[in-house]
Amino acid sequence: MQKQISNQGIYILELFSPTTIRLNHKKFADKTLPKGYLFYVGSAQKNFIKRIERHITKNKKLHWHIDYLTTRSEIKLERIFIFPNATKENECKLVSNLANIFHLEYPLIGFGNSDCNNCKSHLLFSKVKINYNHLCSLYHSTVLFIPSESDILWE
Q: What does the DSSP 8-state code read for residue 6?
């Protein structure tokens, strides 16, 4: 019997950009992101799986800040860490823990946290991959999903 994933939770999108990029978003128009690994922490308190599927989809209407990264052809979605049943309150704790434990930087202040007054950003950056074993040991209920080319909905 297959276990159902909750309809709510938080997640980390791990993106890789092989080049420096400039976003096509008015709030971040004068900013660039360095090449390397980007970690976006988000939540969905309903339709959790649909939210994850939307992030995997390349061709979509630009709505959230993260859409301006996930739709870029040069940026690859490497991994998705899923925390089923985690509440929105845990989203900010996760951002803080990632930044502190893995010494991640905040590349764009105000990115992805319009509904949050606690965090500088929900987007973090590292020049190198983080230690996944360490991350999973900190959060035992983490589900790791690595999307393949066939999982990405190119539409």
A: P
In a domain, 59, yes or no: yes
**Residue 76 pLDDT class (50, 70, 90 cuts):** very high
Does 155 fall in a domain? no
111's tokens: 């990115």
Cα–Cα separations (whole angstroms), residue 140 to 44, 99, 136? 20, 19, 6
Enter the pTM of the model: 0.86
The answer to the question of residue 152 being in a domain is no
Number of domains in the chain: 1
The dihedral region occupied by 36, where left means phi > 0, alpha psi between -120 and 50, and beta the remainder, is left
What CA–CA distance (Å, rounded) separates 23 from 95? Answer: 22
Residue 29's domain comprises 9-145
pLDDT in tens, 89-105: 889 999 999 999 999 99
Tokens of 113: 């946290």
Dihedral pair phi/psi, residue 67, rounded to 5°: -60, -30
